[in-house]
Structures are given as structure tokens and as C-alpha cells.
Amino acid sequence: MADNRELMTDFARIFYTERDPRGAFARYVAPGYIQHNPGLPDGPEAAVDGLEPKFRAEGARFEIQRILVDGDLAVVHVKASRPGAPDTAVADFYRIEDGRIVEHWDVLQAVPASSANAHPMF
């Protein structure tokens, strides 16, 4: 669906590239946002409060690798980096309803120091 692709592309730009969770959530996330990450409560404000310190941290980078959209579901594959920590591969899954993000799941995996192949994680 073109509208959901446009929504996710702009959300991802604001959220990951500009590192502005508050702006992205204000524009695209529904008030009844359901959170499946066990470290965060439901609701957009709880997500922003939990994520903003990580996204605003000096030297933090979130490089979008790909965005996949299938109907009302989207996945954003991200390389997350911050000073003093290993890079992390992130897959954020979102459900969209009526032009707003209403639900989120995520999977995170630390990028290993060495790999059996020349193209790990990304």
C-alpha cells in the first residue's frame, strides 16, 4: 500500500535518521499505541520517554538498511551504533491502522566482533 510505505518512510526518517522520537511519535503514532517490548509500557509517551535518551545520546547513529511494507505491517531494519558499545542489528515491526502506527514489536541482536562470512547482519 503506497500510503503505508510513505508513512513508514517519513516516520523512519524522523525517528532514526533525525533521531527525533518525540517528533516522529507526535506525527505518526496513535494514542492507544501497543508496545510489545517488555522493557516499555504501552502508550506513545512511555515509548518516547524510554527511547529519547538513547536516540539523543552523543554519537548515537541509526542507519536504516531497509524498509519492508506489506499491507498494514512494516519492518524497519536498522544498524544502531553508540560509542563504547557493539553495534546492534534491530528489526522494528510496526502495525498501521487508519494512517497511524498502533503497535510495535522489536528484535535486537548485537553484531559480533567476528563472523564466519564477510557480510554479517547487514
Task: Please give a structural write-up.
- This protein is an alpha+beta fold and 122 residues long.
- The protein has a single domain, classed as Nuclear Transport Factor 2, Chain: A, CATH 3.10.450.
- The chain has helices at residues 2-17, 21-28, 44-56, and strands at 29-35, 61-70, 73-81, 88-97, 100-110.
- Strands 1-5-4-3-2 form a five-stranded mixed beta sheet.
- Helix 2 packs antiparallel against helix 3.
- The longest helix is centred in the first third of the chain and has 16 residues, at 2-17.
- It is globular and about 45 Å long.
- The two termini are 25 Å apart.
Topology:
Blueprint: H1 2-17, H2 21-28, E1 29-35, H3 44-56, E2 61-70, E3 73-81, E4 88-97, E5 100-110
Parallel strand pairs: 1-5
Antiparallel strand pairs: 2-3, 3-4, 4-5
Helix pairs in contact: 1-2, 2-3
